[in-house]
Amino acid sequence: MVRFSFGAPVSDDNFFNREDELSYLEKRLFAIKAGSRNDIAMIGPRRVGKSSLALQMAGHARAKGFKTVFLDCEGLDFESFIKEYGNALLSAELEDRPDMKIREALRGGTVAAIAALSEILGRVSALELSAAFADFLKLRIELERERMTGKTPQSLRELLEATLSLPAKSSSKYVVVFDEFQETATYGLEKQFHAVFRRATQFQKNVVYVYAGSSVGMMEDVFGNKRNPLAGNADILGVVPFSEETSKRFLKAGFGSYGKSADKEALQVLWEGTNGFPAYLNWAGLRCVDFPGKNVSKDEAVRVIEEMASPLSPVYQSVEKQLGRLGRFSRLILRSMAQGNKTATTIATNVPKTNIYVYLERLRKYGLITKNEAGYKIIDPVIRRMVLNY
Ligand SMILES: Nc1ncnc2c1ncn2[C@@H]1O[C@H](COP(=O)(O)OP(=O)(O)OP(=O)(O)O)[C@@H](O)[C@H]1O
Ligand SMILES: [Mg+2]
Questions:
Q1: Is ligand 1 within 6 A of the CB of residue 49?
Q2: Within this chain, do residues 290 and 351 fall inside the same structural domain, yes or no?
Q3: Average pLDDT of 302-314?
Q4: Residue 203: which domain range?
Q5: Ligand 1 pocket member 51 (CB < 6 A)
Q6: 0.85 cut: is pTM over it?
Q7: If DSSP states are collapsed to H, E and C, what string results for the chain?
Q8: Which site from 74, 182, 250, 333 is most exposed, i.e. has the minimal number of CB atoms within 10 Å?
Q9: What integer pLDDT is reported at residue 170 of this predicted model?
């Protein structure tokens, strides 16, 4: 029985649907057992369920004997990426050793981190880690020391290469998920990060990489633009909202688990107000079950959908945070689109700016709008309503 949940990625009892995506992903994972590797780039707009899908897949992979690493790149700079990824790989490698509380020790500040890393280094062979881990640990300790003495780190590139090579030195099979991977496009090494990444990982036979990201255009650029080192390195899996049928099935199942049912019209209102975005379906579901009575009515559904885009709702706040990062013109363009304009020319009539195509392309890159035969369209129904207030 599925339960509604809003605010963080979901898995297991809160996870619904996505059978096709999961079976596609799992086929890729198991292909490496037969010696063929295919990485995947999971691309979709905000709040569509990418992280949840990646987590659920990682859970299945773990149950099938893979070691799994999940690294959220959001907010990580180059150095913290290297550190966090290294920490995650160490914890994965030592996860069967309950005496090794790696993550906690490494978070305890520089002195504690050096002590923890040195302890592992001293026990590399007893812990049955490969020699590559010893090299990695020495570089990590060196970096921590440089940081402690305020020196500019000399060894970052070497440490990055040592870290990226670790999973291939393991005797286990690995699934490595990088969430919000587009963030790495801005990393140091004079824009060579992806080139180094590719060189270090391309011949690894026991690792599948899954890259998830919400900046649709940036992800397409990283994996599709021939000038970029990772182009062609991953097959793209588009993550889209639930269909009408799935959305209604999800709501019914969710209501059922709270001992409730819903009118047909109520389900229709909830579908139209959420366009199948799982985050919105969950939030609306939770609000609907707050009403007394066993049946969700159409009026209640209408109230919930109205409330969803009002300033006090957490949905509003999450969307506002995303829109807050945009400039004024981008927001005016979105407003013009929400008013019903679909072509660049008509959109531009409400925007005092001439280079409309540059802005439209940027909004597409951020995953906020799509373009098809019918013209430009805002993907997210809550964004569509909120920008009307600008
Ligand atoms: N398969 C699913 N079944 C049920 N609910 C889901 C599912 N996937 C996502 N959700 C709902 O959507 C919300 C957002 O999911 P998630 O964080 O996975 O999306 P995301 O695409 O990674 O978003 P963001 O771009 O903001 O990181 C979850 O908190 C949950 O409420
Ligand atoms: Mg996410």
A1: yes
A2: no
A3: 95
A4: 18-238
A5: yes
A6: yes
A7: CCCCCCCCCCCHHHCCCCHHHHHHHHHHHHHHHHCCCCEEEEECCCCCCHHHHHHHHHHHHHHCCCEEEEEECCCCCHHHHHHHHHHHHHHHHCCCCCCCCHHHHHCCHHHHHHHHHHHHHHCCCCCCCCHHHHHHHHHHHHHHHHHHCCCCCCCHHHHHHHHHHHHHHCCCCEEEEEECHHHHHHCCCCCCHHHHHHHHHCCCCCEEEEEEECCHHHHHHHHHCCCCCCCCCEEEEECCCCCHHHHHHHHHHHHHHCCCEECHHHHHHHHHHHCCCHHHHHHHHHHHHHCCCCEECHHHHHHHHHHHCCCCCHHHHHHHHHHHCCCHHHHHHHHHHHCCCCCHHHHHCCCCCCCHHHHHHHHHHCCCEEEECCEEEECCHHHHHHHHHC
A8: 74
A9: 93
